[in-house]
Amino acid sequence: MNFNATLIGQMITFGLLVLFTMKYVWPPIMQAMQDRQKKIADGLASAERGVREQELAQAKAAQTLKEAKQQSAEIVAQAHKRANEIIEQSKQDARTEGDRQLAAAKAEIEQEVNRAREQLRHQVVSLAVTGASKVLKREVDEAANAALLDDLVAQL
Amino acid sequence: MSESGHSATGYIVHHLTNLKVGEGFWTLHLDTMFFSISLGALFLWLFMKAAKSATSGVPGPLQNFCEIMVDFVDTQVKDSFHGRNPVIAPLALTIFIWVFLWNAMDLVPVDLLPAIAGLLGIPYLRVVPSTDLNSTFGMSIAVLLLVYYYSIKVKGPVHFTMEVLTHPFGKWFMPFNLLLRIVEDLAKPISLGLRLFGNLYAGELIFILIALLPWWIQFTLGWPWAVFHILVITLQAFIFMVLTIVYLSMAHEDH
């Protein structure tokens, strides 16, 4: 149990072991562990970011959907309105056209009536002249009595 | 493996004798050197293998084990040492694993390796390096030298001398302070070396004594003692490491 050169040998061995550990064992293992730590931290961070982005995208999608619905509702409403307008317009047009045609027909009828009346007057006058001629047994000079006849026609 | 009652003393003495060469101080314990260097090589081989293929991806089982050890030691160092020193953590790892491997040799059946050596013509073989005072003191003195190295390096020679002379009772008690410091610094390696040696020597001795019992009763004592020893060998390695860290961190701090 005495001290001897083994002590020195052991000290040297110990020193060498520590040196080797310092140079070749500790740094690579530590490095790997730190790298992994960083990797995991990065992974967790990016996962978090992904979740946040997904939430954002979802919110955006919901917003877009809402807007689209609103727009489509607006478009439908506008279409309804336009259809009503068109119907109204058509009704209006139809009425106007009908009125116009009615008026034209009335005017024509009036014209016809007037013409017929005129004709009738003339026939009545000529009948009256003929009658008068027969009564007088002689020719009534139409030209000489034109003023008289026109007056007669106006009175009819 | 008791040969007979009256040769029990001879059996024990035989088991406690080192294989040595040389005379006087220049004696070398070949068995201690062989086993400690082999175990050191085993430690380095394992850890360098893990270190060489160390990846930040998914670690293999060996890397996992080494990382657990490294992380464990690193935590211990960070707990008690707050400065920056690239030596302390690898030093602590070396101490922990190496001392653990030394101690673990105690769990090899006491007669196995000496019997094999006997067949090869080697007369004596002590397989547990930590039952050799030269090993434990070699380590603890190396630690003391490191403590001095860092004390002087960190504080500077002047500050260090002042601290030795004036702490803890002020400058009027210089001789007393110096004496106290010497005792304190002597106590460090002695307590470190003797604690490890004492525990493992006692453990080994008890294994030898158990081996003297009849073979059919040995397991009743051998088994519990071996199980208990698993705790002892780990604990002693851990204590050596932690105290080394504490001493070295004290060297970095002002009193």
Sum this structure up briefly.
With 156 residues, chain A is mainly alpha-helical. Chain A has helices at 5-136, 146-155.
Describe this structure in words.
The complex is a heterodimer of chains A (156) and B (255). With 156 residues, chain A is mostly helical. Chain A is 91% helix and 0% strand. Chain B has helices at 8-15, 30-52, 61-80, 88-104, 112-119, 133-155, 157-166, 174-211, 218-252; strands at 20-21, 28-29. In chain B, strand 1 (20-21) and strand 2 form a beta hairpin. The termini of chain B are far apart. The chains are: A mainly alpha (156), B mainly alpha (255). The interface between A and B is large, with 34 and 49 residues.
Q: Return the average pLDDT of chain A rounded to an integer.
A: 89
Q: Using a beta-carbon cutoff below 8 angstroms, give the protein chain pair with the largest interface and the number of residues from each chain.
A: A-B, 34 and 49 residues
Oligomeric grouping of the chains: heterodimer
Give the H and E element order of chain B: HEEHHHHHHHH
| Structural domain tally of chain A | 1
- Terminal CA distance of chain A: 172 Å
Count all strands of chain A and give the number: 0
Q: Rg of chain A to the nearest angstrom?
A: 61 Å
Order of helices and strands of chain A: HH
Largest sheet of chain B: 2 strands, antiparallel
DSSP E strands of chain B, number: 2
Uncertain runs of chain B are none
Count of spatially separate domains of chain B: 1
The 3D shape of chain A can be described as rod-shaped
Tally of helical runs of chain B: 9
List the main descriptive attributes of the protein structure presented here.
heterodimer; A: 156 residues; mainly alpha; B: 255 residues; two-stranded antiparallel sheet
